[in-house]
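Format notes (please read before filing issues)

Several people have asked whether sequences and C-alpha cells are stored in separate files. They are not. Every record keeps both together, in the order shown below: the sequence lines, then the C-alpha cell lines. Line labels are part of the format and must not be stripped during preprocessing.
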Amino acid sequence: MVMAYTGKDNTKFNAMGKFSSAVNARYCEEHGYGFRLYTSGFAEDRPPSWSKVLFIRDALRSYPWVMWMDADAIVTDKRDTLDRFLDERYVMVVGKQDWNKAPWNTINSGVFFAKAEPDIGRLFDGVWADISRPGRVGWEQDGFRQMMLTEMFKNRIKAVCRRDFNSLVGSE
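Then the structure lines:
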C-alpha cells in the first residue's frame, strides 16, 4: 500500500494523513503487506495529488501489485484482504462511481491497484503528460480516464464497483 501527504504544514489534511497512514500501516502489518508513506519528493510544478504517479512507480519497483490510497482513506474492515481485488488480466483495478455511465467518466483514482508490468510505465507516462492536454477536466484522475480510452489500455483497466473498496461517508 502506498500513501502520501505533504507534511509541509499543520493543516487538517496533514493531521488526517498522519491518522490514516497509521491506521493503514497497522492494517498492512497485520496482513503481511508492504506499506510506503511519502511525505516529501512531491513534484513542485503541479498539485500534490499528481505525485501519486511518481510514488506508485517507485513502489512498483519492489512489489508485484501496489494499492494507492489517498491520505483521506482508511481500511475499515480489517478482516478483509486486498488480494481478492487483484486480477492478473489487468494492469490496473479502479473503482467506478456511477454504474449508469461509462467507466472512463466516473473512475476514482483515490483508491486503486496497479500491477508491476512493462506497460504500466506507459500508462503512468500518459497520465503524467495529460497535464497539458487542452480541455482537460480534472487533475491526474482525468489523465487516468483518458488512458482508459486508449487502444492499449481500454481492455486492460478493470473498473469495479467503487463500494467494493472505496466508500464515502454519507454515500449510498
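For reference, the curators noted about this record: The longest strand covers residues 107-115. The chain is about 35% helix and 15% strand.
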